[in-house]
Write a structure and sequence with these properties.
This protein is mostly helical. Helix content is 50%, strand content 9%.
């Protein structure tokens, strides 16, 4: 629980101001400091994953271990389904563009959609990225 408090304290300045600087551009964020409601939803999922990650990995390891008796594996399986929130699974996190919140066509290294990546590369706003010339 203290982890969530620390992360929320770190983002309080962003939320109160409503603006952020991305690649030198000031972005006006709507509402409580996010591009749209999907980013807020995704952020909450990420915090849930982070909070339950260690316990979930331990129980999952017991569940998938072939050496253990079936009773222990079944108990671990029921514990995963009953005691952990659904959003604590990493598969439910959606990787979105940090500028536009677009869920598809993202470059993981830059956390940008292909459209914004090309836009920033055109105007030389990404370090180490250069348009192809031959």
């Amino acid at each position: 629980m203290s982890l969530i408090k620390a992360l929320s304290a770190a983002t309080d300045s962003l939320i109160t101001s409503g603006t952020s600087k991305i690649f030198g551009f000031t972005q006006k964020r709507s509402g409580a400091g996010w591009t749209d409601w999907r980013m807020i939803k995704d952020y909450k999922k990420r915090m849930t994953v982070k909070q339950h990650a260690v316990d979930r990995i331990r129980v999952n390891t017991l569940r998938k271990n072939d050496i253990l008796p079936i009773e222990i594996r079944e108990a671990a399986s029921t514990e995963i389904h009953n005691n952990f929130p659904r959003d604590s699974n990493l598969n439910r996190v959606v990787y979105r563009c940090m500028v536009t919140s677009r869920p598809r066509g993202n470059l993981m290294k830059f956390r940008l959609s292909r459209i914004m990546f090309r836009h920033f590369a055109d105007y030389n706003k990404l370090s180490g990225v250069q348009r192809a010339m031959w």
